[in-house]
Amino acid sequence: MPASLLQHPFMSASALAECNAEAMVQAMLAFELGLAEVQEARGAVPEGASRRMRETLEAHAFDPQAIAAGIASGGNAAIPFVKQARAALPDDLKRFFHQGATSQDVVDSALMVVLAPRLTALDALLVRCRAAAIALMEAHAGTVMVGRTLMQQALPITFGVKVAHWAIGLEQARRRLAGCELPVQFGGAVGVHSGWDGQGLDFMDALGERLGLSTPVLPWHTDRQPIHALGTALDAVAGAAEKLALDVALLTQTELGEVAEPSAPGMGESSSMPHKRNPVRCALIRGATRQVHGHATVLLNAAAQPLERGLGEWHAEWAPLLDSALLLEGALEQAAVLLEGLEVHPETMRRNLAATGGGIMAEPVARRLAPLLGQEAAKRVSAEAAETARRQGIAYAAALEAHPEVQGRLTAETLAEVTEPSLYIGSSRAQVRRAIAWLEGE
C-alpha cells in the first residue's frame, strides 16, 4: 500500500514519527522490564536480575522486520519479540523473563503505553481548538447571519452561536476522551495468574503503576470494555471535528462566501482551475474522521470475544485503534489551524440575509400582523410582500408598507424594526455567553 501518498497525509506527521514499529518494540520491552522489576521487588525474581535484564536489553538492537515476519506463525508481535529478547539474555536470566505473562498481556499493555502520549496530544489540540473558538465567539456574538434548516434559509442567528455549537461538541468529546482509562493488562495464559495465586493481582497493580497505566479490576483479555470506551470516545471527537469541517465547507461555497479557510501559499489550489480556493483543510478533516468512523465499527464489532482469548477479534483491534488516534491527531491539527485563522465575512452574511428579498423575516412579520389581520391573512401578506421585495429589488419594509392590507396599520419605524434581522436573533447572544462560561468553567 502506498501509505505515504494515500494514508499518511490524513495523519499527524509528528505522531507518525513517534508511533512506529520501534515505538511498539520499546513499549513491549517496557512491559517486560517493568514486570521483572515488580516481581523482583516481591521476591519472585533473584535480586539484581531485573537490572541485568535492563542493561542487556536496552543495549540490544531488536530487529523489527524479523518480529514482523514472525507474526505470521505466532499470530501477534509478542511471540517473536519475546524470542528475540530471550536469545539476547544470559542463560541464567532467560527463565525469569516474561514470567507469568502471556502474549496478550504484552500486546495490550504495549498498545496502551503507545497510546498514552497520543491521548495527551489530542487533549492539547482540543484545548487549542477551544481557545480559538472562544475568541471567535467573543468577536462574533452579535454578527448576524442566516440560520439554515434542511439546507435552506430559515431565520437569523449569530455566527457566534454557530461557533459555540462547534466548540461545545468538541469540548464534550474532549471531556469524554479524557475520562477514558488506559489499563495495564496482566493475567497470564487464561487470565487468572496461573501458578502465582493471589500474588498475580499484586503484580498487575504494581506493573500498572510502574508503566503509568490504570489498574483494572481484573485482567481484561476478553472483556473489551476499555477498547470499546476508547474507540467510541475517539469517534465522538471525530464526529465533532467533522461537524465543524462540514459547516465551514458549506459556508465557503462561492454562492455563500460567508467564511473562508486561512490562506497559505498553494493551499486549496486546483490542478486545472486557477480561480479556485478549495476548502482543503475541511476535506482533510472529513477524510480523516470518516476513516475513524469506519475503524470504530471494527472495534465495536470486536467487543464480544470468545471464552478466555479472542480468535481474530482481538487481532482486528490493533490497527484500527492506533490508526484512529493518528488520523484524529491529523484532523485536529487542521481543525486548530482552521479555527485560529478562519476568515469571517460579516458583510457577506448581511448580503445573504437579504437574498430572499427579506423573506427570512416573514415569520416575525406574520406574528406582528396576526393581531391586526388574523393568522392566515398575516401569513399570506408577509409572503406576498417578500415576493414583491425579491422581484422588484426593494426593501422588505418598503414592500410591506406599500401592501394595501398593511397601509396605515403600522408605522414605518415599526416596519423597519420588525424586518430587521439583528433584532430577531432570539437567545443567540445569551447562548454565546453561557457557552463561554461552560467552556471556561472546567
UniProtKB/TrEMBL annotation:
Q: Which residues form a coiled coil?
A: none
CDD domains documented for this protein = pCLME
Q: Which keywords label this protein?
A: Isomerase
The entry lists its GO molecular-function terms as: isomerase activity; lyase activity
Query: What Gene3D superfamilies does UniProt report for this protein, alphabetically?
Result: Fumarase/aspartase (C-terminal domain), Fumarase/aspartase (Central domain), Fumarase/aspartase (N-terminal domain)
Pfam families from the UniProt entry: ADSL_C, Lyase_1
| InterPro entries reported for this sequence | AdenyloSucc_lyase_C, Fumarase/histidase_N, Fumarate_lyase_fam, Fumarate_lyase_N, L-Aspartase-like
Annotated Adenylosuccinate lyase C-terminal domain residues: 357-436
Q: The organism sits in which domain of life?
A: Bacteria
Q: Which family does it belong to?
A: Belongs to the class-II fumarase/aspartase family.
The entry's protein name is 3-carboxy-cis,cis-muconate cycloisomerase
